[in-house]
Amino acid sequence: MSDGSKKNLSATSRTRQYRLESSSRVLKILLLVLFGELCAWAYKTAIPPPPRKLGSPDGIPLTSPRIKLRDGRHLSYKEYGVSKDIAKSKLIYVHCFDCSKYHDPFAFSASPAVLEELGVYIVALDRPGYGESDPDPKRTVKSLALDIEELADELNLGQKFYVAGFSMGGEVIWSCLKYIPNRLAGAVLISPAVNYWWHNLPSSLTNEAYSRQLQQDQWSVRVAHYLPWLTYWWNTQSWFPGFSVIMQNPVVFSPADIIVATKLQNATTDPHQAELMQTQPRLQGEFESIHRDMNIGFGKWEFDPMDLENPFHNSNGTVHLWMGGEDRIVPATLQRYIAHQLGWIKYHEVVGGGHMFAFADEMGDNILKALLN
């Protein structure tokens, strides 16, 4: 090979090498840009939007009364039953997950005659971030119990009052028993949600109950417990299903639940009431209501309910736990164990009942009579 040919070959090799290096640099730059864009997209989708504003001048119009708390937030509420001034018993009701003060089993399944006979006044509140109650970005397991106490004081319910809660609202009643026991005349937990990480629950029992949940719920609960900052993204992305109750997956409801839900829908003949029940839960958006609810309910608790002591040593009050035997959302096996460990809990299991058994005919009467008699 001549010297000229060698020089041409060398120049060609250098040109090829330069092009390869240039292409490699461009590819690296493109990958870095793509990675940056992906990170920006992930950050945006993981950060929830701010809640919708309530009240005048430019917020969502308010339709029910509210009290102002010490920290400036407001709690919305709805009253019914006998007049507060003549009531023998005063009860605060705490609603369930993805619901509002309009989803109250006593309002549907307790008869006016029984309310009159027992002399009971009931006030149902919107939990923070739900309905027309302001969000609480600093909300903890303890804070809602203190909100309930402040609501009772603002409404002049007296030194003692009853509390009742359904599902995720039932879980809140454990907080009331822990943090404001001296204010309680009695308590009812109806199908209360369970935190699988309460340390006193045997792992064999929680593993068995956990495995019976839908796969999508197992993952959703894990995210809420271990990665709460991802809860919003997890339940709003479209790649795989989020929490079944949010997705309204009918599989989680038992045949008894479907019957109760159908009757409930047919019983709500007032179009305005039906609209409120449909729109109020997520009125301010999803994060401060249902997603924060999951983070608190399935997150790291400051106490275990099975460490609680009987707040009514002098038999001046009772605590009742009601469950449906066929509940597919909250495992009855765990509730039986909790009630057994806490011997002072009066446990009631409705044979064949589902998660929504409390809305069935006469169940409200039965629950109130057991508590107040």
UniProtKB/TrEMBL annotation:
InterPro entries: AB_hydrolase_1, AB_hydrolase_fold
Pfam family, one: Abhydrolase_6
Cross-referenced SUPFAM superfamilies: alpha/beta-Hydrolases (SSF53474)
Membrane spanning residue stretches: none
Residue span, AB hydrolase-1 domain: 92-361
One Gene Ontology MF term: hydrolase activity
Domain of life: Eukaryota
PANTHER family, per the entry: ALPHA_BETA-HYDROLASES SUPERFAMILY PROTEIN, HYDROLASE, ALPHA/BETA FOLD FAMILY PROTEIN, EXPRESSED-RELATED
Protein name as catalogued: AB hydrolase-1 domain-containing protein
